[in-house]
Amino acid sequence: MIDKRVKNAKEAIAGISDGMTLMLGGFGLCGIPENSIAALVDSNVKDLTCISNNAGVDDFGLGLLLQKRQIKKMISSYVGENAEFERQMLSGELEVELTPQGTLAEKCRAAQHGIPAFYTPAGYGTEVAEGKETKAFNGKMHILEHAFSAQYSIVKAWKGDHAGNLIFRGTARNFNAPMAGAGKITIAEVEELVAPGELDPNEIHIPGIMVQRIFQGDHYEKRIEKRTTRKRN
Amino acid sequence: MALDKNQIAQRISKEVKDGYYVNLGIGIPTLVANFVPDDISVEFQSENGVLGMGPFPYEGQEDPDLINAGKQTITTLPGASFFDSAFSFGMIRSQKVDLTILGAMEVSEKGDIANWKIPGKMVKGMGGAMDLVASAENIIVAMMHVNKAGESKILKNCTLPLTGVRCVKKVVTELAVMEITDRGFKLLERAPGVSVQEIIDATEAELWVEGEIPEMSL
Question: Does ipTM come in above 0.95?
Fold first, then answer.
């Protein structure tokens, strides 16, 4: 067993420096690496390019890094729900590359799987396709998209072991799974870190080979963005 | 009378057939789930990674690890499954999802759709809409026929940045059900009490009207 444990978030993000490109898991606020984001805020690292489906909300998630102007560029599919983000984007302080969600996920997965590029029909005939190579397959037009290249992937899982094996819970799997191993170094924070042998190998979602650093986070807030309920009869 | 949002959803629910896997967009499409009859088997897919979505949870039973693509808390039904975002769009691209229902700002007579950006005003992003419309075989749009200024959103050509080209099959609005054919919009049904002329007046595109146009049954 190769032990991937680091002490805490601060130790986990060691080496992340100004101008780097990071992938960060999560969908909305669901499954975001809360502890690592907090450590990045504390580290004052700046000019980051962040690949993340969303940009958090004003006072949580990646919104915390935006507030401190630590992000130079965001690559996302949907960025509503964040007033500070909108302000920085419209004023030109923040560069934004909007990418269809399935393409975003596949650009992560391609990096994770060692595939340099792929064709997808998403965005054909729209401004997303501008400047990109196109090709017909089976009579349908596709556009060429490239795998992401990032120095670090930062993912959050439900359970993990010392070897870096990960298990996700519910819809918190989202971008965390395809980002694991997609960056040169993958940091995983988990709600529960257990000894090797305690996780059933049949139930592992991401094998430890994809993870270089793992730690158990603390004080997970797991904030709900849109609490929606129904009435009891 | 023009339909309200729930009635638009109710009309669209009639397009959902037994055995369908269905992806519902944000807004009116989300309401469609409320009207699917109990005697057919349907599974709802949400592109953030769940199949077999159930109703919203009771208060106190919300789970932060369990949301839909609109970021609302949800529940799952027996037989549900979770998967990651790449896998989710894999099943969408490979056309395992039978029906996609989404909202739009504009639809053209060629089946083009615009729903993600108003230059200079609103840029929230396309989310999964571009992937869905590029791959889905059957796409129904739920939308309002005219905007707040009274201008038609059923157009010869879209004016806003496109989400996808030649993809929409059917449009249901507060006034009408229309199919997109090689000849453009074909009027299929009108809302109860709404005349064909009223629909023509609210439509910028040519409307192909053939024979008696029946009222929708809800």
Answer: yes
pTM assigned to the model = 0.97
Instruction: State the catalytic residue, choosing from B43, B47, B106, B109.
Output: B47
User: Is there a contact between A185 and A21 (Cβ–Cβ < 8 Å)?
Assistant: no
Q: Which residues of B touch A80 (CB under 8 A)?
A: 124-125
Give the residues across from A146 on adjacent strands. Answer: A117
Per DSSP, B216 falls in state P
Compute mean pLDDT per 10 residues along chain A, 233 residues long, and list them.
97 98 98 98 98 96 96 95 85 94 98 98 97 97 98 98 98 98 98 98 98 98 96 83
Residues 6+ apart with CB under 8 A from A90: none
| DSSP structural state of residue A210 | G
B35 contact A CB<8A: no
Chain centre distance of CA B95: 17
Instruction: Write out the H or E segment, with its range, that includes residue A216.
Output: strand A213-216
| Alpha-carbon torsion, ordered A150, A38, A156, B96, to 10 deg | -70
What CA–CA distance (Å, rounded) separates B110 from B165?
A: 8
Every domain of chain B and the residues it spans: 5-208
Size of interface A-B (CB pairs under 8 A): 178
| A14 to chain B, closest Cα gap in Å | 28
CB A4 within 8 A of CB A163: yes
Of B49, B73, B127, the CB nearest to A78: B127
Rounded to a whole number of angstroms, the distance from the CA of B76 to the nearest CA of chain A is 10
What CATH number belongs to B5-208? Answer: 3.40.1080.10
CB A133 within 8 A of CB A144: yes
Please write the tens of the pLDDT for every residue from B3-36.
Answer: 999 999 999 999 999 999 999 998 899 999 999 9
Fold for A9-111+148-216, please state it: Glutaconate Coenzyme A-transferase (3.40.1080)
Ordered by start, the domain boundaries in chain A are 9-111+148-216
pLDDT, tens digit, 9 for 90 and up, residues A174-228: 999 999 999 999 999 999 999 999 999 999 999 999 999 999 999 999 999 999 9
* Element of type H or E holding B132: helix B129-135
B89, burial (CB in 10 Å: exposed 0-12, middle 13-18, buried 19+): buried
